[in-house]
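Run log, item B.
One chain of 201 residues. Sequence copied directly from the ordering sheet:
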Amino acid sequence: MNERYARQELVKFCRMLYDRQLTVSAGGNMSVKVNDSEFLITPSGRNKGLLEPEDLVLIDSKGKPLSEGKPSIEHKFHLALYNMNNDTNAVIHCHPLHCVTLAVRAEPIKSNITPEGVLLLGQVPMIKYYTPGSKKLVEAVAEYGNSKAILMERHGAITQGRSLEEAYNRMEELEFQAKLQLLCGDVTDLPKREITKLSKM
């Protein structure tokens, strides 16, 4: 992907995440793969709704900055996901209110109560709480790195995708499913046969 275009696209999706209240203030971090050895990621401590293309930080596969700015403290779990999954080209981490509500309660998300949840998310694991930016958090994310979406206890959510749009759609769907679960209360999954059928689509 052309770096200039990638910068424009990542900023566009950061603003969408902010406008949809999927992230607030300086919370969260988002990245996109430019090529096999370079990635753009949001800078540390900046409001995601106010970023400009030149604010994004280009890093290499080891996390070394190749442009101005300080990369997000969470860049290591982004790189872990890219290294694990050749088809992952975008990673989004933010703190959607209903997802975080479940994460604070340590209540697993039910992603199999609607067809869209099954299709876009699959099974969504929740990892235990670890300090943001820590090696233990990176290791915990990597343990479930094949998942389309992950919840982090008392922290937030991660989605990955073949494109920024796919990663974004998964985050939006994840928050919708979390809100739906909280509104519905005790609700059962779709029948196993239907889940299997949808998973193959």
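Observations after the first pass:
- The mean pLDDT is 95.
- Residues 80 and 142 are 6 Å apart (CA to CA).
Flagged for discussion on Thursday.
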